[in-house]
Amino acid sequence: RLDWEFGPVEEKYALLARYAVKMPKEETDLVTDLTYSWKKLKKLADEVTEKLRGMQSGFRRGLIRNVRTFAVDVVAFRNDFEANGPGVPGLPPMDACERLRKFQRLYEERERKYEGYNAGEHLFGLPITSYPELEKTRNELALLDKLYGLYTTVLNTVAEYNDLTWYDVQQDATMEMMNKKMEEFQNACKKMPKDLRSWDAFIELKKTVDDFLDSLPLVQQLAHPALRPRHWQQLMELTGKTLNVGSDAFKLSTLLEAGILSSREEVEDIASSAVKEQAIEVKLAELSQDWAIKQLTFGQFKNRGPIVLNGGATAELMEALEETQMALGSMMASRFITPFKEEVSEWITKLSTVSEILEMWLQVQSMWQYLEAVFTSGDIAKQLPQESKRFQGIDKNWCKILTKANDSPTVITYIYGNDSLKQLLPYMLEQLELCQKALSGYLDQKRAAFPRFFFVADATLLEVLSQGSNPQAIQPHLQSVFDSLVQVTFDKKDKNLITMFESSEGQTCKMRTPVKAEGNIEEWLDRLLKEMQATVNSIVAMSALDCDAMPLPEFTHKYQAQVSLIGIQFKWTLDSEDALYNAKTEKGIMNTTNKKHMARLNDLVVMNMQSDQELRQHGKWTRRKLETMITVDVHQRDVFDEVVKKRIRDPEDFEWQKQARFYWRHDLDYAQISVADVDFKYTSEYLGVKERLCITPLTDRCYITLSQALGMFLGGAPAGPAGTGKTETVKDMGCTLGKYVVVTNCSDQMDFRALGNIYKGLAMSGCWGCFDEFNRIDLEVLSVAAQQVACVLTAIREDKQTFQFTDGSVVNLNKDVGYFITMNPGYAGRQELPENLKSLFRGVTMMVPDREIIMKVKLTGCGYATNAILAKKFNVLYRLCEEQLSKQAHYDFGLRNILAVLRTAGASRRSSSDSSDKGEMVLLMRTLRDMNLSKFVAEDVPLFLALIDDLFPGVKAEKMQHPEVEACIKTVVLDFGLQMHPDWVSKIVQVYEMSLVRHSLMAVGPSGVGKSRIIEVLQKAMQSVTVPPDSIMPPMLGQPHREVRLNPKAITSPQMFGALDVVANEWTEGIFAQLWRKANKDKKNFTWLVLDGPV
Known about the structure:
By secondary structure, this protein is mainly alpha-helical.
């Protein structure tokens, strides 16, 4: 074959040489030598073959001979193996192991020979000889080697482990290593061929491995550091062997030989108990360490130093005490507590003692703080000399306790085992309770003398009483006990002589007889009250004469607001009844009288159209006074209009009788108001300048129902959804009758004592009480309230002068009292009233009033001539808004919004010179648009503008301008380094416009849109406006502004609004209420309370 391959190669190179292709010399030489070298090699091979043929026969004969001998030897070896090998039955494993080693050596020699002979047979091409005995022996040896190899390894390893000292065994690494190794051995056993599993060596091997693995978990548990000498003692008792863990001679074998496997469960129980006991031991140690350093924290009290326990820190301490006591309790319940039972019991005793004493300490502290303020002011101390002396003793003890506590503030050391503290605190508490009781008795005595004190909190009352020697100092508290009397004027010479009183609006009224502010406060306040009522009554008497004769403008400006109002009501009743009496005889008198009423109303509107400057000459409250008179007079005109239309000719007709009619009774010397068949005496409370409700048919019906209820000696209970005017109607009816109406906002925090005090105060003072959202009070309190109201109403029915209240005290009764409760049915957290309470109150169902009437009345008051048509448009717009715009939580088209719009509309009408119908329409359209746009979400704006266009077709109006404020806003925005973004700036202006007509505003929107910034910018801008003298501008411009910010979501509801402390029976004001109070007192700044948090 090779010869054939040379030819083509040589031809290719010859072709290349013919065409003179250059090639390396070495390559050409190789090609030239190819044939020659091949022939030389063939010749050499032939020679060698010949030589071998000569030698072969000798070797071959020798090989055949040797193979025969080897075959005999193999058979003998096999027989020997079967007779004396390791597989002989009954042979001990160790001997078998020895024999295995021996036969392995013998086998290896034969294996070598076999390999040599086998190669020879291959070489000479002889048939291959097989040795089945050798093959069988090899397989058996391999199997036995597997078994005995593992056997010896296991025995050696176990012996090595048994020799480990106990210290080594306790190391995690050692345990891990032993576990791992034994598991490997166990897996190897599982992999052993089935034939070997019956061998003694295998059985012994498996038992050794399994036993060791079984005992390892026990060893691991006993090696846990939690085991104490007491546990080893238990083990010794269990096994009956001595186990000296501490000595070096103690090895793993010692433990295993003790037979722990045979009592496995008991050993496990001892080990797990040790671990659980250690956990208790650790907890106890932590607890001891913790309480060894816990200290009492003290706070400064006034300027007397750190003599009170700090509230927050002590509350935390009480929590910690409670938690620790619970932990100790659960320890005591554990079955592993035995070794520590005494120690834990001792701790429980310690901490419960500390907890009891600390609770009492806090109780004493709260009473001491409350009474300290009372007895340090001289006036009350003089009134209660014995209690004052008793309190001084308590005060000394208190200071002593706290001085010592300051020196040694560790909780356990100071409180536990301090016997003097254990004895002193209960004694002090008892003494303080006596002082408190005397003080309560003292306050009740003062309240009995001047019942309006029942509407004042204890703390405020004490503040008032402590100013006894300084009448001027109680001016800020006057508004707590009078409706609108907020300030009195003292005579310049006689500093204690009160000559005049004043309302919050600044309207004054001169006393008929000056009152001496001397003697006990409650006595001269009572004199002031009676004299105030007598003064108002005498002025009303004069107005009853003047109202008929005096021209309206003169009459209006001569008298105080409430007197001017009742004056025109006297005049209207007088003229109307006169017409009704003479209607049958004098033809046309009804129409004449109706025109007279209309003329009076028009006169009032004309007066109200005067500029602010002109009206302010008569007092800055004149505008409000006129608007109130118009509001009432519009209703009076409408009533008489209705009477004329129905052709009524008799003053006894029910259509006339059901109205509120006003008479001056010369025989009784007081004003009388009659509604149907119930006559009320005008109580002559000074009411300042109050805004009055627009009277709708609903209000009329409500008045009739409430007056009938009072006539039947019952209370009134207006019920209905929010915004229907329940509370306002009661307040308004109170104003009509010259009453002081005490409004109480009820909550689930009120208890029967708090309610009882108010009921008692009302019964004694003859005021009206309106309990707002009464069904928020808890059910069990409501049933007691029913008893309290019932006993007052029964006393009125029986015409008693005095009666016994439910708390057992006998009190004077003023029959002018009235009880009213308002309810929002069907809201969350509201109760159903118990039957015994329902029967005492006559229900009045209130629903949404006719808004159009209210709009019409208010627009009339503002001087809009086309009031009827504008009111209709206004009403339709709001109805469509409610129906068609999207439903947003912050949208409100109710009365509050309507009144805000009407206020702005009034201001626009007065400042506008265009009194044409078109001009009025433009004004109202602009007001409605600008006042509402600010609150709409983007998708509602086009729809709202479309509605306005439909209602006021073709009317266009520019936005209202506020040049002074807008200029300042621009400056402030740039000062703050912000952008003059038109939409955002217009929002600032909208907030300003809202703040002119609303007390409370809400900025709604996602975070980061600049809500807080709007308020900041607006405050700064309003502050920086310069107000020229004598100019009339909103009161917040040019004033210093202050912001108080609070996140309402960061505190709980009681923290925000207040809560009743059940122990002290005291109302604690919440943060929000405190901030309101502070803001009201701060006369220098215009305060913004910002509740900055998610709505």
